[in-house]
Amino acid sequence: MTEANHSCGNCTQLRARLAETEAELVQLRARIEELGRHDSTTGTLNRRGLLDTLAAELQRAQRTGHPFCVAVLELDRPADVAAQRDRMADDAVLKKTADTVGKLLRTVDRFGRLGDDSFAIMLPATWLDQGVIAMGRLAKAVADCDWGEAAPGLALTFSAGITTNAFGDSAESMIERAGQALRQAQGAGGARVIQVEEALPLG
């Protein structure tokens, strides 16, 4: 083999290694981006992931005119349960809650964790009354959960607020509106779903 051919062969191998390295970097960046959008405890979307997904759905709804719902739900924590929190496997409870809800959602729905005990669900192509029915199914599933060794004897319910998209909405405004309905549900004693729509403009 001449020196030129040897050099050419080295260049080919080097280009192949560089291409392989670049492909690995692309995969790594995608993985980092994916991790940055998910909650480490439950494996669901985190707040950032939820807001990004909701913003994209708002744009799609503006193009198609299709309605969709957003629900914010939070586990009801009675005083006697709250007092035991140091002894409860909270992470296991949250993970089981997320798994229970996730199994009942459609493949097009999106679900994630907003905060400590709070989650949000986006239901594409769903009218408000349909969304309320869906929340009722989820509420029954959570109430029927057997928490097993994670928290023996535990019985939990959740409160939820649900809203539908309106003209001029942002991801944050929908989350806030559903959150206000959630607080109404909690103020009314919990273990219930309250729906709310954006008020129509005056005049």
Please outline the helices and strands.
Layout: H1 3-35, H2 47-64, E1 69-75, H3 79-82, H4 90-104, E2 110-113, E3 118-123, H5 128-143, E4 158-164, H6 171-187, E5 193-196
Parallel strand pairs: 4-5
Antiparallel strand pairs: 1-3, 1-4, 2-3
Helix content range: 40-55%
The CATH architecture designation of the largest domain is 2-Layer Sandwich
Which oligomerization state do the chains in this entry correspond to?
Answer: single chain
Number of individual domains: 2
- CATH homologous superfamily of the largest domain, by name? Reverse transcriptase/Diguanylate cyclase domain
- The name CATH uses for the topology of the largest domain is Alpha-Beta Plaits
End-to-end Cα distance, whole Å, is 86 Å
**Helix and strand succession?**
HHEHHEEHEHE
Report the major sheet. Answer: 5 strands, mixed
**C-alpha geometry:** flat
Q: Could you characterize the architecture of this molecule?
A:
The chain has two domains: 1-35; 47-196, Alpha-Beta Plaits (2-Layer Sandwich). The protein has helices spanning 3-35, 47-64, 79-82, 90-104, 128-143, 171-187; strands at 69-75, 110-113, 118-123, 158-164, 193-196. The chain is flat, with a radius of gyration of 23 Å. Helix 4 (90-104) crosses helix 5. The chain is an alpha+beta fold and 203 residues long. The longest helix has 33 residues, at 3-35. Strand 2 and strand 3 (118-123) form a beta hairpin. The protein is built from six helices and five strands; from the N terminus they run ααβααββαβαβ. The protein has a five-stranded mixed β-sheet with strand order 2-3-1-4-5, sandwiched between helices.
